Amino acid sequence: MGLCSVVVASACVILVAFVIITPSVGVTQSIISSICSQTQNQEICESILLSDNRTNSADLPLLSLISIELAMKQVDKSYQAFCQFHDNTTDPGLKISFENCVRIYQNMKDIIRKDYKLSQQKQYKSICDLGKLTTLAYDCENGLPSNSPTAAITEDMLLHAQTVAYTNSIVAGS
Known about the structure:
Elements: H1 3-21, H2 29-36, H3 42-50, H4 60-88, H5 92-120, H6 132-142, H7 151-173
C-alpha cells in the first residue's frame, strides 16, 4: 500500500470517528428565540427551556419532551401549593376556591401526561390541548379573591404553559 493510500485511509477513519463522536448540534438560539418571542416574557421563557441541561444539545423531538417535563414540574409544584392552601385555610369560601384549583391542576396534570405520551410517540400534530393550560390557570386564579397570595404561582404557571404550548407548536410544524 502506498503512502497516499495510507494517508487517505487514515483521513477517512478520522472523519468517520469525528462524525460518530461529535454530538449533533442541538436547537439553536434562533429556534429558542422564535419559540419564546411568542410568549408574554421571552427572557423567562428562554430561561425555562435552558434550565434543563439537555436543551442545548436537544433536537426538536427532545425539546418537545423537555418542555413538557418542565411544565409538569411546574404543575406539580402549583398543585402542591394549592393543596397546602386548601388544607391550611379556615375560611370555608376560600377552602372551596382552593379545592377548585386543586381539581383544575389535577386536570392539567392529566393533560400533560397524555401529551407527554404523544410526544414520546412522536405524534406532535396530535398534541393540541397544551393551550388549555393557560385557560385553566386563569380559571383557578379568577376563582380566588383578589388579595389571595397565589398570583406568583399563577404567573409561573402561565409562563410555563405558554412555553410548552409554543414549543410544541414549533415542533409540530417542523
